[in-house]
């Protein structure tokens, strides 16, 4: 079986593929290297190889690689920055500084449709990337996601603290909030939707032809109704990872 990892700054998203990589056997999200190893051991999986993308420091990534190799005796392949991959040309002036998760999401999106794309990743941070019909990455934007906005308000505003149950109930609608939890949660959601609408308008200006919209990340559902034609692809980074790190 094949282990795939998307190592972010806050969490590690993981999944295991069947030997012929035709189906996902299991997967999940963990908060640390130790939790990842413990979770995989509990699954009693026969792992043959691992491929991963990491936006962590080199030291942190290397520590995880050593742990995986020592525990499971598997070879690990890491995605690397590239100026061009699978018909997509990196748009950063310093290509190696484009976040690898963003890069692989862009590659994964363009690989599927071979046309202009707007790629929106709605996680702890929110990113947008534009790719034209010729595969040229035109750049993008980064801004705080809902978790960061919410946590900043909770940290710096004493009266803006409430539990997760109230947070969930607050998003049943987007009417003006009549409690702090409703005001914060709905306000953050509306800010996210406003950012997405701006990106759609910009894509319409940048692209001469029709374009596809890809949504990924944990908060994709918050804007799904805003873009009914969007493709919601939770594993978009993994699709790009398979392109960047093919297994023999």
From TrEMBL:
Annotated Gene3D superfamilies = 3.30.420.40
**Signal sequence extent:** none
Question: Where's the active site on this chain?
Answer: 101 (proton acceptor)
| CDD domains the record matches | ASKHA_NBD_PanK-III
Q: Which cofactor does it need?
A: NH4(+); K(+)
Chemical reaction(s) catalysed:
(R)-pantothenate + ATP = (R)-4'-phosphopantothenate + ADP + H(+)
State where the protein is found: Cytoplasm
Q: Where does K(+) bind?
A: 121
* Enzyme Commission number(s): 2.7.1.33
What job does this protein perform?
Catalyzes the phosphorylation of pantothenate (Pan), the first step in CoA biosynthesis.
What family is it from? Belongs to the type III pantothenate kinase family.
Quaternary structure, from the entry: Homodimer.
The name on file for this protein is Type III pantothenate kinase
Q: Which gene encodes it?
A: coaX
């Amino acid at each position: 079986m094949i282990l795939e990892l998307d190592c972010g700054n806050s969490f590690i998203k993981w999944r295991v593929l069947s030997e012929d990589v035709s189906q996902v056997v299991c997967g999940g999200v963990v908060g640390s290297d130790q939790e990842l190893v413990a979770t995989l051991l509990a699954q009693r999986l026969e792992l043959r190889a691992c491929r991963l993308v990491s936006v962590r420091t080199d030291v942190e990534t290397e520590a995880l690689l050593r742990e995986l190799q020592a525990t499971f005796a598997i070879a690990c392949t890491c995605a690397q920055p590239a100026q061009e991959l699978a018909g997509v040309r990196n748009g950063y002036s310093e290509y190696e500084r484009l976040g690898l998760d963003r890069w692989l999401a862009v590659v994964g999106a363009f690989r599927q449709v071979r046309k202009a794309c707007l790629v929106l990743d709605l996680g702890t941070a929110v990113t947008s990337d534009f790719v034209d019909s010729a595969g040229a990455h035109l750049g993008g934007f980064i801004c705080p996601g809902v978790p960061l906005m919410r946590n900043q308000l909770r940290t710096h505003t004493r009266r803006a603290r409430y539990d997760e149950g109230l947070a969930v109930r607050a998003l049943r609608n987007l009417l003006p909030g009549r409690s702090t939890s409703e005001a914060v949660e709905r306000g953050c959601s509306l800010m996210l939707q406003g950012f997405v609408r701006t990106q759609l308008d910009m894509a319409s200006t940048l692209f001469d032809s029709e374009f596809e919209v890809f949504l990924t990340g944990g908060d994709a559902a918050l804007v799904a109704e805003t873009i009914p034609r969007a493709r919601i692809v939770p594993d978009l980074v993994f699709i790009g990872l398979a392109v960047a790190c093919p297994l023999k």
